[in-house]
Amino acid sequence: MAKDGAKDPGKGFGDFSSAPTYLGHRERLRDRFVNGGAEALPDYELLEMVLFRAIRRGDTKPIAKALLARFGSFAEVISAPENLLQEVKGVGPAVVTELKLIRAAALRLAKGDVLNKPILSSWSAIVDYCRAAMAFEEREQFRILFLDKKNQLIADEVQQEGTVDHTPVYTREVIKRALELSSTAIILAHNHPSGDPTPSLADIDMTKKIIAAAEKLGILVHDHIIIGRKGTVSFRNLQLL
To answer: What is the pLDDT of residue 36?
Structure first.
């Protein structure tokens, strides 16, 4: 024991014996990430690291595991609606902002892989981008990728958003927008929130109407992609085009 007025060496500057245990855990995770990359961490630990910035103090592991238990995967967590995220204990506005920032960065990265490149030579990147953008949406979205004469992306637009199992699509609006952008080819894409990407009869009928109208004006429909959590379906691969 130190004498009165003397400094106890066990409590001096630089001593971490009484530091919160989560600090050591955070440093170990950072070291594993630096040395082994993202593949060295399971989903819950990668999610823990994402939460470090939003939750400066405390153990983020319980929140990360609770989020994964609720939504299923890392991708589903960052894509989940804000109101549902905040139903998880410990998740507030700061956490939601951090998660949505990660999703925005992922989408920007995926979109970067298809910009200024001939679409048909980077088809897997197109599918990956559509999946990242739409697979975990709770409502159906109808997206159109507009291409120029070199099959490069002019615009990527969500034309319609509907309910959990239906999106109204108007052929004349699709063609009108293609003409406005001087697009000579388009790729159609929409999601199935049910998870099953199998095209419905309505999907097939709608696609045929768009193809027929587009052909009259010299606009080519390259494909219609349906995105679901359980996979992706291409109308061209199914010989529906």
So the answer is: 80
Q: What are phi and psi of 42, to 5 degrees?
A: -70, 170
**Cα gap 192→230, rounded to integer Å:** 10
Residues with Cβ < 8 Å from 46, sequence gap 6 or more? 33, 38, 74
Task: Give 204-241 pLDDT, tens digit per residue.
Answer: 999 999 999 999 999 999 999 999 887 899 999 888 88
CA distance 229 to 137: 10
Angle formed at CA 15 by CA 11 and CA 17, multiple of 5 degrees: 90
Please report where in the chains the tokens 């052929």 appear, as a residue: 171
Sign of the dihedral through C-alpha 85, 226, 125, 38:
positive
Q: Identify whether the C-beta of residue 148 lies closer than 8 Å to the C-beta of residue 184.
A: yes
DSSP track, 91-150 = --HHHHHHHHHHHHHHHHHHHHTTTTS-GGGSHHHHHHHHHHHHTT-SS-EEEEEEE-TT
Model confidence at 25, in pLDDT bands (50, 70, 90)? Answer: confident
Q: Which residue's entry shows tokens 């040395």?
A: 35
